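Handout, section B. The chain below has 275 residues.
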Amino acid sequence: MNLYTIHTGYFKLDGGAMFGVVPKVIWQKSNPADSNNLCTWAMRCLLIEKSDRLVLIDCGIGNKQSEKFFSHYYLHGDQSLEGSLQQAGFCSDDVTDVFLTHLHFDHCGGAIKNMEGEPAFKQATYWSNQAHWQWAVNPNSREKASFLKENLLPIQQSGQLDWVDIEQSGWDLFDIITVDGHTEKQMLPKLSYKGHTLVFMADLLPSIGHLPLPYVMAYDVRPLLTLEEKSAFLKKAADEQYILFFEHDPQVECCTVKHTEKGVRVDETFKLSDI
């Protein structure tokens, strides 16, 4: 198995929304905000090459939305989904599977190429789970702005959508941790790689800055449940020396964690290519 980091660019989100009840005077030390209170975040995806399979985990925000839409998120950086695939030696037609941790626009927007609904990965099966899909296509008012029909309905209409059986806690190439605090039935891939256990953190832990338990995004629909999920996960991650792969941390790709007097905190940070 080979793993590749796929960079799809950076965007900005409100720092207060990203850190919830934690005061700015604290979180700005690790995530400085601009004059509009916006912090920079990565949209970092993971590509898995194994035998005749090429699996992309999440696919960034895409580029099909309107100028007005993108003006809210300040996309920047020289990296792109297609460019990163090419740098890894592949193209979109090589991808056999697109595994979507959840269907918020910054995780699945790249799945559909244009507003006409053309799939960006024509040879791929797109994977979600039925509970989360129903949650996304019938959104509550809190999350409605994150579930965009132009990202979702064309996947189903293409005939390329299939379901992960989350009751089995596993999929073809990796195990799955299912969490419900951020959104209903978010899926975190957990895989064995070079003698390590690596977990793709998606939005359970968007960044290193979210390791302390109270640092929970205001976007989460069940913040108290996120607290419980984080606590249980981080204890196991420290006990078993998991490698955490961050989707949104603007600088750090991977880290391990350890137990300290203040709780579970960062041990070592490194790039995926250093493993």
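Note. The longest strand covers residues 2-14. Compare this with the example in section A.
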